[in-house]
Amino acid sequence: MNWLHRYAKLVAASTVLLIAAGGMVTSTGSGLSVPDWPNTYGWFMFSFPMDKWVGGILYEHSHRLIASTVGFLTVILAIWTWRVEPRAWVRRLGFAALGAVVLQGLLGGLTVLLLLPAPVSIGHAGLAQLFFCITLALALVTSPSWRAPQAAPVDDAALRRVATATTLLIYGQVLLGATMRHTGAGMAIPTFPLAFGHVLPPVWTPAIGIHFAHRAGALLVIAAIFATAVHVWRHHRERRELTRPAILLVLLVCSQATLGALVVLSGLHPVLNTAHVVNGALVLGTALVLALRAHRIAVPAVDGAQGKTRVAETRPSQSALDPLRGLGGARQ
Amino acid sequence: MNALRPFVTVAMVLLIAACSKEKQAAPGGPPPNAKVVDESKAGSVSGRVTIDGPVPANPPIKMSADPYCMHENPNGATFENFVVDNGGLENVFVYVKDGLGSYYFEVPTTPVTLDQKGCRYSPHVLGVRAGQPLAITNSDDTLHNVHALPKANQEWNKGQPLKGMADQKVFTAREVMVPFKCDVHNWMHADIGVMDHPYFAVTHDGGKFELKHLPAGTYTIEAWHEKLGTQTQSVTIGDKESKDVTFTFKAPAAGTD
User: Over the stretch B118-149, which tens digit does the pLDDT of each residue have?
Assistant: First the structure.
């Protein structure tokens, strides 16, 4: 099972790379540089000559190849999970990942063939983040620490609420960001931090509205993340599996706000723009890990087993979790 | 019922054939009450498009994304934002915007060609009639995709991976202008004016243009430039009369590309 956990982490990490590649496609305006799909200029995708990977093709074709690789890795992940995982809901999660990656591939092809209609492209961007969340969840729940019975699991309804709300809010913000990117509203408000010298834009168009909503959403997300982090710090300071993602979340959201500002001030520089997208995925993923750990008590470690005593107070855990190193992996 | 089936089938085939014929015939002939230009009485509007003030330098193109394009442009290349010769502005699309009424004009069947050569579109600005074939050719030994971004017509994106490839497309509706781009080489850009009459030209040789064979009348003439926008003038010509028109665009402030 440890190998499955490690493999699930590999798939999650590959998905981050895939999101970065997809981000570069949109940021460089290369979405239609390969006009056919699933072939590439008539070539079978995997036999497309490397000397033709030029200009926008470099980004689009690389994205397709990385996506194919992640798709292949996901097939293995689903089969592996189905074969070795005793928990039915985890096996289902493995197949949910497979379904998501297949749908994601189809959406990617469809958006090319239909010449990038905004709803399809936004759906493609939104599903990418959901797929990342599924792979991350799989990596977390297959970790030894998640599967091991907990002597003193965290039972904090307030934490569950605030962490879940924060995660959902971040996903909403991700969708708003995707809408902004795929409707060309990234520079609808070209000034920062004020909008045309005002707190509220003096003129409103659909593009300005979407852009402003993303900025306002950022403030809400920052507030929610700080609320979550403060709650963790005040009530669960000794639980490293909670404090680590909470601290990471604060650091990531600060980076995200800085990147967002730089994206506008640089006039949508492709690298900064992509870094903003990738960092956004990391913010979402970290919030999800924290939320899942907050819900850990409600989920049996193995099917049919409860094996834990609900306690209101928490104490230091010997199986402290590291969101970066282990995604729930215990130090053994 | 079975006995009637062959008759019903034949009737349906005939009906479909009749409908198809009717559809094909419709665009060919002149509409009722349409007038035809009397060439013996036609005049013309000619003139020049100039630019006033210091012209911004065209920024250099970074072609490093494709070694072939670098090789084809050993001395580098610049954008074609402002092509000026002796004060005359080239690549301006000049056309009769209004005033033609109900004249009917045959649509040429000879294609207009847009070539991709040296990782540039050639010509940079051109006009085509609605219904006239537009031939797009690839003279480069590298991949291009031809991505048309019209609003009134159907958008399309076609790859031309090999040298010598050619495609033909037809725009069906008048549109000024239809931008073209290559998503592979993001500096490649062209604009095509799609007209429902033959009175259009692209300025050349120091900003000159000529709209020939115009019937007598009062017309709104528009000059369109990709960076400077549009200007219009009203011109009245009589039978066999030729008029001279000058459009003067103001150069943009420094820093505007």
Answer: 999 999 999 999 999 999 999 999 999 999 99
Tell me what pLDDT residue A149 has.
83
Q: Please indicate if any CB of chain B lies within 8 Å of the CB of A41.
A: yes
CA within 13 Å, CB half, B22? 6
Of B68, B142, B186, the CB nearest to A56: B186
Residues on chain A touching B184 (C-beta within 8 angstroms): 33, 54-57
Q: Cβ of A13: how many Cβ atoms within 10 Å?
A: 14
CA-CA-CA-CA dihedral for A319, A322, A328, A332, to nearest 10:
-40
Question: B201 - beta bridge partners?
Answer: B94
Terminal-residue alpha carbon distance, chain B: 74
User: CB–CB of A54 and B155 under 8 A?
Assistant: no
Give the B window 40-69 contacts with A, CB below 8 Å.
65-68
The CA–CA distances, whole Å, from A271 to A83, A189, A274, B19, B26 equal: 40, 20, 5, 55, 53
What whole-number distance in Å separates Cα of residue B111 and Cα of residue A102? Answer: 43
What the block records as the tokens of A165 is 């709300």
| Angstrom distance (rounded) from CA B133 to CA A237 | 72
Ordered per-residue pLDDT tens for chain A, 332 residues: 699 999 999 999 999 999 999 999 999 999 999 999 999 999 999 999 999 999 999 999 999 999 999 999 999 999 999 999 999 999 999 999 999 999 999 999 999 999 999 999 999 999 999 999 999 999 999 999 898 887 788 899 999 999 999 999 999 999 999 999 999 999 999 999 999 999 999 999 999 999 999 999 999 999 999 999 999 999 999 999 999 999 999 999 999 999 999 999 999 999 999 999 999 999 999 999 999 999 998 776 665 444 343 333 343 443 333 443 444 443 32
Burial class (CB in 10 A: 0-12, 13-18, 19+), B181: buried
Instruction: Assess contact for A64 and A45: CB atoms under 8 A.
Output: yes
Q: Which of A36, A41, A55 sits opposite B185 (nearest CB)?
A: A55
CA distance A276 to chain B (A): 22
- Tell me how close the Cα of B133 comes to any Cα of chain A, in angstroms: 22
Distance in angstroms (rounded) separating the CA atoms of residues B232 and B238: 20
Alpha carbon distances (Å) from A79 to A74, A284, B249: 9, 26, 67
Distance CA B81, CA B91 (A): 9
Backbone φ, ψ for residue A183 (5° rounding): -110, 10
B190 torsion bin: left (phi>0), alpha (psi -120 to 50), beta (else) = beta
CA-closest candidate to residue A62, choices A30, A36, A35 = A30
Q: Rounded distance, CA A72 to CA A65, Å?
A: 11
Report CA B38 to chain centroid distance, whole Å.
25
- Whole-number Å distance between alpha carbons of B189 and B144: 12
Residue-level pLDDT at B2 = 52
pTM: 0.84
Parts of chain B with a pLDDT under 70? 1-29, 254-257
Cβ distance of B145 and A54 shorter than 8 Å? no
Which of A35, A41, A55 is closest, CB to CB, to B65? A55
Q: How far away is chain B from the Cα of A112, in angstroms, using its nearest Cα?
A: 10
